[in-house]
Design brief:
Order of helices and strands: EEEEEEEHHHHHHHHHHEEEHHEEHHH
Number of domains: 3
CATH class of the largest domain: Mainly Alpha
Strand content: 5-15%
Shape: elongated
Largest sheet: 3 strands, antiparallel
CATH superfamily of the largest domain: Intergrase catalytic core
Helix content: 40-55%
Low-confidence stretches: 110-119
Structural class: alpha+beta
Length: 425
């Protein structure tokens, strides 16, 4: 006995139907054939023909997720396999009509509906995994984003292993904030980020009709935070990084420096420089669609940026990438090492809040440098050198002045400091 899962091929007005098509099982035995109904439908674009299952991340028109459908399909295949084995052991022939009746009894629509309703009651964490899987694929997440959601899941499960969407009211969310602050020892700024990720998941759960609970929308705890400090490299510090000598034993820092400087010259985020392809550089310009905001940007490259692209013109990178970009975490570590070597060691005091407790810590500047410092360095130096904010926003893809304001404030302080030096001029 042989069987195959496939989509029904039916035409309407001479055109093959591709939406909401029944999934069926064709069974062949001794020259006879029967067709079994699985009780499910899906779109042609969602069907994996070779794997005989629904592709990950897809829902059908009945709002049934791929994992629920595939789970039942797997049970149906196991049923057919077991029937074949039983007849083989009993040395009896398979009667396809009887098989069809037995299959119908086992997977009748009534029973199927009951199973479907039971299966639909996925746990909080099963839905969370489904969300990460679906949104990650749709939005082409980079590894750091997956890591952030993995970290949030760990904290949530340590807070309550039996979380339930319908019971996640404001009181429960307040308990979560208290846990993150007192047990996980999180700073207020970190808690805000964690809540942002959680609300993203909860919004998805409501949209997918897994819950009607929208209490999260009005949950806005008062978390005291200090004004964001913009860490960037001045023109003089940038020269230090450019000109510092790197030992032969640490040539990995040379490539890290090149990628970092390219970000400083172009304002690119790590996610964009990571995805940058050689063909994105056209006639002295970068033409890209940003990963984070899907903005279409055209950025004219200065001579230093063009020189960096040319430096790696003859070097082969996977996926035709333009520059030798390593993982975000490793690059962050190496940037600190590079900037320490370049003596970017001005003491910087960072203010944080844990609950209402103010915390002050002073660090050497190199320990605060990361991949995003490149983007901040471009913005601040562009403004200091007289580029109007609206022009900077066009290059960076910022959509409103609110996001640009912290940089404008930094530049205003920088100009005041410059004027202090000329007070008696």
């Amino acid at each position: 006995m042989k069987y195959k899962l496939s989509l029904e091929k039916r035409k309407k007005n001479g055109v093959l139907i591709e939406d909401n098509v029944p999934i069926r099982i064709t069974v062949n035995h001794n020259g006879q054939r029967i067709t079994l109904s699985t009780g499910y439908r899906t779109d042609v674009k969602a069907w994996d023909e070779s794997g005989q299952m629904v592709k990950q991340g897809f829902y059908n028109k009945q709002k049934e997720p791929f994992n629920i459908i595939n789970s039942t399909l797997s049970k149906q295949k196991s049923f057919l396999d077991n029937q074949a084995i039983r007849h083989q052991l009993d040395n009896t022939d398979i009667d396809l009509d009887n098989l069809k009746n037995e299959f119908a009894k086992e997977f009748s629509r009534k029973k199927h509906v009951i199973h479907k309703e039971e299966d639909k009651k996925l746990s909080f964490y099963e839905l969370y995994d489904l969300f990460v899987q679906e949104r990650g694929k749709q939005n082409d997440w980079l590894p750091p984003t997956y890591t952030k959601f993995k970290s949030l899941k760990k904290h949530l499960s340590e807070f309550d292993k039996k979380l339930h969407l319908d019971k996640l009211d404001e009181e429960k969310l307040s308990d979560l904030v208290d846990y993150l602050r007192t047990k996980a020892n999180m700073k207020n700024t970190t808690i805000k980020k964690q809540l942002g990720f959680l609300k993203w998941f909860l919004k998805w759960a409501v949209e997918k009709k897994h819950t009607t609970n929208t209490d999260y929308q009005s949950f806005k705890p008062k978390l005291k935070t200090a004004e964001n400090q913009v860490i960037y490299l001045s023109s003089a510090e940038l020269d230090k990084v450019r000109n510092c000598n790197i030992a032969d034993s640490k040539q990995y820092l040379d490539r890290v420096r090149d990628v970092f400087l390219f970000c400083c010259y172009t304002s690119l985020r790590y996610s964009d420089v990571y995805k940058l392809k050689r063909h994105d550089v056209k006639r002295g310009k970068l033409e890209i669609v940003t990963q984070k905001t899907t903005d279409k940007l055209s950025i004219k490259l200065n001579n230093k940026a063009l020189a960096l692209v040319d430096k790696y013109k003859g070097v082969h990178f996977k996926e035709n990438k333009a520059l030798p970009v390593i993982t975000n975490q490793r690059m962050n570590d190496y940037l600190k090492e590079l900037c320490e070597l370049a003596k970017i060691d001005e003491p910087i005091t960072v203010i944080d809040f844990v609950g209402n407790k103010r915390m002050e810590h002073t660090y050497p500047k190199y320990s605060l440098i990361g991949t995003h410092t490149g983007r901040r360095t471009f913005i601040c130096n562009a403004l200091i050198n007289g580029m109007p904010p609206h022009a900077v926003m066009k290059i960076t893809g910022h959509s409103d002045y609110k996001a640009m304001q912290p940089y404008v404030d930094v530049v205003s302080k920088e100009v005041d400091n410059m004027m202090d030096k000329f007070i008696d001029f």
